[in-house]
Amino acid sequence: MLYPLIRKFFFALDAETAHGVGMTGVEFLNSAGVACLLAKPVPADPVDAMGLKFPNPVGIAAGLDKNGDHIDALAALGFGFIEIGTVTPRAQPGNPRPRLFRIPEKQAIINRMGFNNGGVDKLLANVAAAQFPKHGGILGINIGKNFDTPMEKAADDYLLCLDRVYNAASYVAVNISSPNTKNLRELQKDDALDALLGSLKNAQAKLAERYGKYVPLALKIAPDLEDAQIRAIADLLRQHRMDGVIATNTTLSRAGVEGLPNASETGGLSGAPVLALSTAVLKKLATALAGEIPIIGVGGIMNGGDAAAKIEAGASLVQFYSGFIYRGPDLVSEAAASIATLRARRPHQ
To answer: What residues make up the domain containing 290?
Structure first.
């Protein structure tokens, strides 16, 4: 019951300021050894996916902790895995503020952050200082391109990031679906995606040999895809033997929030209004992949039922971000419990 009171304070602040204050607060409680004031116990519910064993299927999505500043504090809230980033080769400020907007009437957020981050070296220093990965915690690192890297050289940025983060990551997520870096989603098109995945898998094989360990690669896709595009992406994921796919990123659609304050801001919409769209894409992707590649379901999870719906639609794991802002740490245990109940009824999943 503590979080609804805290949220009133946060929501009185500018959204980006509130984010910084909130993460500092979580960090403080963890350092003081009282993170349990925020988090309820999370049921153990192991899941095997991408060659990894997850202690439970509930993760925090990329974007909340872009630089990996708060890995241990987030881990104390019971997440089964943590994904940090998106990180780019060089530090960049992102788009001008304000760039993060709430639509509380619909439990939604619009962001146009633009991959603001401190660069890959800063992120790796934070990972090296964190205890969570040292103790076997599953840490995903989400990689992207710098805003000023020409599209024809985009693959170079992804390859550089992959090379740098490979040994520090449990898995690497390739973000080609943010709507806030100009033309980035062009990389989802057939020829561009084919070339990018081929380059990444080739690099992954060499890195696996260099480090003596295989680090899975997952692709993060947009919800704004036609059925033919979903099938084409599924074919390429299979063809290149990708290890996972994250469905989905934020949407450019404004369905469900039209006319509300902040709804006309440019950027990607997340939160409750994206649930149906994101889950529909996930279901089509699951059908096209026929169980060959695990899916991480993300987009619009605001309660345990939403998390279970992602699993029913074909996901092996789930993540959230906006739900964490609106619901707080209780959502971790609630989502995990709902999925565990579903899996107990349907052991084949």
So the answer is: 2-345
Q: What is the pLDDT of residues 111-145, one digit of tens each?
A: 999 999 999 999 999 999 999 999 999 999 999 99
Residue 13 in tokens: 């602040």
Which residues carry out catalysis? 178
Beta bridge partners of 103: 108
Closest CA to 89 of 51, 61, 60, 121: 121
Condensed to tens digits (0 to 9), the pLDDT of residues 64-115 reads: 999 999 999 999 999 999 999 999 999 999 999 999 999 999 999 999 999 9
Give 293: exposed, middle or buried? Use CB within 10 Å, 0-12, 13-18, 19+: buried
3-state secondary structure of 127: helix
CATH number, domain containing residue 269: 3.20.20.70
> What burial letters (b/e) apply to 174-183, b meaning 16+ CB within 10 Å?
bbbbbbbbee
Q: How many domains does the chain have?
A: 1
- Provide the whole-model pTM: 0.98
